[in-house]
Design a protein that fits this description.
By secondary structure, the chain is mainly α. The chain has a domain of 63 residues. It is 80% helix and 0% strand. It is built from 6 helices and no strands.
């Protein structure tokens, strides 16, 4: 079989779309099992749907799933805290810097309290 330029491009596009569908299947499969807010039967139903109707099932799941759950918020907060620790961020340092700015007259006492409460949150 001779390969023409169009055959090569078509093969690349087909490979890309197969790879994309498999990647989306794995991502949705992982998301279903990661969630705490979905019951076992609902997880089984979603898995059956994306197994028997992969493209349509993935599309329906992406439309129907909750955008942000409490679990997602908690995971994001934990990741942010890890990043702060790795970068050397310290709540005490932040409050000390704000106190210096307040003592120098750069910020008001209300602004200092706002910064302090944000750092402690």
């Amino acid at each position: 079989m001779e390969w023409t330029f169009v055959d090569i491009i078509w093969s690349m596009v087909a490979f890309f779309f197969w790879f994309m569908i498999i990647w989306m299947f794995i991502g949705v499969f992982g998301d279903i099992f990661r969630r705490d807010d979905i019951s076992g039967w609902a997880k089984a139903g979603w898995i059956a749907l994306i197994f028997f109707l992969p493209f349509l099932g993935i599309l329906i799941y992406m439309i129907a799933r909750p955008k942000m759950t409490e679990q997602d918020k908690r995971l994001m907060a934990e990741a942010l805290e890890r990043e702060r620790r790795l970068s050397g961020y310290s709540v005490a340092d932040e409050i000390a810097k704000a106190a210096q700015l307040r003592d120098a007259g750069t910020i008001s006492a209300d602004e200092f309290e706002a910064i302090k409460s944000r750092a402690l949150a």
